[in-house]
Amino acid sequence: MKSKETRNLAITAIFIAILIIQTFVPNIGYIRILPTLPAITTIPLTMAVYGSLMGPKYGASFGLIWGLTRLVVAYTQPGDLVSLLLFQNPVISLVPSILAGWLPGLITKQLNNKDIKIKRARYLFSGAVTSLTNTIMVILLATLFFMYDPTLLASHMGQFSQGTPLFVILVVSLGFNGLLEAIFTAVVVPIIVTPLNYVIKRA
Predict the structure, then answer these.
(1) 30 forms bridges with which residues in the sheet?
(2) Whole-angstrom Cα distance, residue 30 to residue 202?
(3) Spatial distance between the Cα atoms of 115 and 202, rounded to a whole number of angstroms
(4) CA geometry: angle at 189 spanning 188 and 192, to 5°?
(5) What is residue 179's three-state secondary structure?
(6) Is the full-model pTM beyond 0.85?
């Protein structure tokens, strides 16, 4: 038991180091294409890999760490005004991040005892769900928090006709990023997790 706890602690420390590098080294965790919009983030990949390996409890804790780094970045070095407006809100920073860490572990755990075809697809599925959860929750929470003053956020989201609902603006502006992230994460997670899981089980 002690050996397993030490192994889990070592794995967690490595992933926290990766997360810190992704967060604070430019164009690793956050790849900025359009300067006025939030960056495409590769961090859901790290979330999905860690959660799939370690399970939902560890994954949720790791997601909390991501959410806290989002808050720090929003207050200290926001890359754009939209990120500043969104992620200085603790709920928008923390809730999507925690869910993005918790869900891949839950999905992998629940599908672990299914038939072989489902088992093979579980990492792909957990990767896609991680990215989509993050994007969808950010959109829903932003719509909720800015519903009484949508112009504050909508004015920085591109050229939209007056009266366009904030939810539609967010889906159009953030949805493309979210789709790219989901495809990337879904494809790469099985490639990384399958051999890592094998090594960890043999350790």
Answers:
(1) 41
(2) 34
(3) 23
(4) 90
(5) helix
(6) yes
